[in-house]
Amino acid sequence: MLLFESGPLFFVMLPLLLVTCSGSANERPQFHHLRPVRASEQVDSDGENVEVVQWTTRRSLAETVRNWTLILAEERTRRKDPFDGFNHYDGGWNISDKHYWSSVGSTAAPLLIIAGFWFILFGLSLLLICCCCCCRRRERYGYSRIAFVFSLNLLVLFTTAAIVGCILLYIGQGKFHNSTTNTLDYVVNQANTVTEKLGDLSEYLSAAKRVGVDQDFLLSDFQNGIDKLQLMIHSVASNFGSKTKKKSKDIQHVFNIVRLAFIIVAAFMLLLAFFGFVFSILGLRGLVYFLVIIGWILVAGMFILSGILALLHNVVSDTCVAMDEWVQNPTAYTALDDLLPCVDNATAQETLLRSKEVTYQLVRVVNTIISNVSNVNGLPVVGPPIFFNQSGPLMPALCNPFNSDLTDRQCVAGEVDLNNATVVWKNYRCQVSPSGICNSPGRITPTIYKAMMAKVNVSFGLYNYSPFLVGLQDCSFMREAFAEIYNNHCFGLRQHSKWVYIGLTLVSSAVMLSLICWVIHARDRRQLQRTIQFDQGKGL
Nearest-CA neighbor of 432 among 395, 381, 389, 394? Predict the structure, then answer.
């Protein structure tokens, strides 16, 4: 159950990476290509039905858009659904829908059926052989040379196939484990990137409340707004990082167990094929029958495991196709929205707006001090902090990147931007006496310079996070993440899961046929030895 609850962080890493199963698994969504979700039908004043289209907030990083539903991987997931009368499933990729699992599970049905038939029929055959051996009192003499050579050749062929399958299974599971680990690492790194940037942004907002130029601080309503925003960011960042890390650890734990199981299975089946071949060649029927009984049970289990791997391979491939289609239609509502936890729309928009407001206000405060204090030759009788014997060339104002309505603003001549303000303003510092009065040319004291630099650094940090916040808002961050997984991870996941599936099926089939050849060849070799002994006895 852990495997399926972890979802596509598993099936994207399965993606297999990385997904929370959302919604009821018992409700089958009725999806149509890129259509609005209809909330209800109402009757207008003329008595006619009026279709009301529901507008919802997309659970994405960003914008409020019309809630479209896109069927992901529709063609690939069109399989027969046993839970729906073997009709074709048309709901697309959706791991929270039991009909999706039913349809994809049907791909494993042939191997599961083979496992069932093998276990029953071969078990009956062994029982029949035991009955015949017990009832027959005299050994038969004579053998067919053609049958003996033919059974020997088949035994060599199937044993070789089993060895090749074990090698393919071992190599495939190693590569598949590496692919899933790399995918999980990428998902976790993306989650950490968002968490760290949101955390840094929260620190900048906190610093914005603390810094001031002498007695000029941010207004109290701004400080209250920042407090609320910090709580929202902290809640989102904590949930985002912890949720992804927990799922990643759970999925990695499952894959470590699966990898160990595959290694043990490959080694055991290799030893079984080898010793079965040797005992059959030597005609040791007792040991051969002992291995046959063990192999009979193991082969049935191997076919069941092959079926599970076939299902896993198809889910991985479905998820990769679904991610690619989501990248092409990022604003549509899909079943893939939970693959990576997203910052909700309200938080992203308010964070972006608040960071712009704080940046604008900080720059405005600094420029107010420059224009009203630093660049004013005040009267000595006023004294600090208005007058501290400032003199020399006038300080350039700080370029505000936003207008009062928070739209982008271009710097004008004579302003310094946030990138080089700290360097330029160093030239306007003066040396001060113990009383805080400048005793050399300069427009600001070291204390004022330090406070102004604190505000500039905070403004610079907030301003630089704007692209990141915009990336969250327009879902470009998610598009890049999914495109990266599809382009650089999906091929390895699909290819190597296929190797494991093929290797496991090859081993199962080869050992199954080898069991039959062991019994036949051990019997033929036993008859050959008795025939030789009988002929030698007659000769004497």
Answer: 389
Q: How many other CB atoms sit within 10 Å of the CB of residue 187?
A: 29
State whether residue 213 is helix, strand or coil: strand
In the three-class reduction of DSSP (H, G, I as helix; E, B as strand; rest coil), residue 430 is classed as: coil
Exposure string of 289-324, with b = 16+ CB inside 10 Å and e = fewer, is: bebbeebbebbbebbbbbbbbbbbbbbbbbbbbbbb
Structure tokens at 458: 């905070």
What residues have CB less than 8 Å from 115, skipping those under 6 apart? 299, 300, 301, 303, 304, 307
- Whether the CB-CB separation of 240 and 191 falls below 8 Å is answered with yes
pLDDT digits (tens, 9 = 90+) for 65-98: 435 678 888 888 999 888 888 899 988 888 878 8
Show Cβ contacts of residue 272 under 8 Å, excluding neighbours closer than 6 positions. Answer: 291, 294, 295, 298, 511
Among positive and negative, which fits the CA dihedral 45, 49, 50, 55?
Answer: positive
CB 336 within 8 A of CB 72: yes
Beta bridge partners of 9: 17
Peptide bond into 15 cis (omega under 30): no
Collapsing DSSP to helix, strand or coil, 115 comes out as: helix
For residue 31, the model assigns a pLDDT of: 36
Residue of 248, 178, 103 whose CA lies nearest to 495: 178
Answer whether 0.85 is exceeded by the pTM: no
Residues 6 or more apart whose Cβ sits within 8 Å of residue 65: 58, 331
> Tokens standing for 227?
């407090």
Helix axes 345-369, 220-282, angle to 10 degrees: 140
- Cα separations (Å) of 398 from 10, 370, 404, 419? 50, 9, 15, 10
Q: Please, which residues have CB within 8 angstroms of residue 473's CB and are 6 or more apart in sequence?
A: 61, 62, 63, 348, 349, 352
Q: Give the three-state DSSP class for 444.
A: strand
Element spanning 239, H or E: helix 220-282
Q: Which residues contact 233 (CB under 8 A, 6 or more apart)?
A: 198, 199, 201, 202, 205, 347, 351
Residues of the chain with pLDDT under 70: 1-68, 133-144, 205, 207-226, 229, 232, 236, 238-241, 243, 330-331, 336-348, 378-385, 470, 472-475, 526-540
Residue 47, Cβ density class (10 Å: 0-12 exposed, 13-18 middle, ≥19 buried): exposed
**Do the Cβ atoms of 334 and 69 come closer than 8 Å?**
yes
Within 8 A by CB and 6+ apart from 439, the residues are 389, 430, 431, 432, 433
Q: Which is nearest to 469 in space by CA: 369, 348, 301?
A: 348
